[in-house]
Amino acid sequence: MHYVAGAMLLALMLVTVIDIVGRTFFDNPFRGTVELTEMAMIVIIYLGFGHAEHEGDHISVDIVYVKLRRQAQLALTMFSGLFGVFVIGLLTWTLYRFAGILNGGGYTTAVWDIPQGPVALIGVGGAVMFVLALASTAVLALRDFRKDPSTRSHRKCANEG
After folding, report:
1. pLDDT band at 154, cuts 50/70/90?
2. Could you tell me if 99 and 120 are in contact, meaning their C-beta atoms sit under 8 angstroms apart?
3. pTM (2 decimals)?
4. What residues contact 148, with CB distance under 8 A and at least 6 apart?
5. Domain extents for the chain?
6. SS3 108
7. 23: part of which helix (H) or strand (E)?
8. Are the C-beta atoms of 124 and 96 separated by less than 8 Å?
9. Residue 21 to residues 24, 76, 78, 106, 118: CA-CA distances in angstroms?
């Protein structure tokens, strides 16, 4: 998915360069640059979310996180993953419904007459990948939490008492 986002970024750069050169040197800008940029940004951002989550590349402020015990870090990772699944899942569902409205209404862009529904559905696909990546993060944190020797010894003592 990130290759598609990368190719779209390259295409966006090309359109921008053509627009700037046309506007500056020929007084003839590339028509539809704004709408193509908007469409490309939807594809780039939504397809990039899941990849960034999968690779652990999202920006994070971990001032407190790094000072927590390993168990607390894993619990926080599980919570944030599950919370993300819930919130991004709701946003994905809303985007899916909106894509249906765009498809059903036959909405297109003003200059190039590009159907907006399929682009929104690409966003939905990227959002679904993001939800799956968040779920994977939460499940992996749960697995590591269960494997953590400090949690095992605590459970063992609780079961023996």
Report:
1. very low
2. yes
3. 0.82
4. 70, 71, 74
5. 2-151
6. strand
7. helix 2-25
8. yes
9. 5, 50, 49, 33, 30
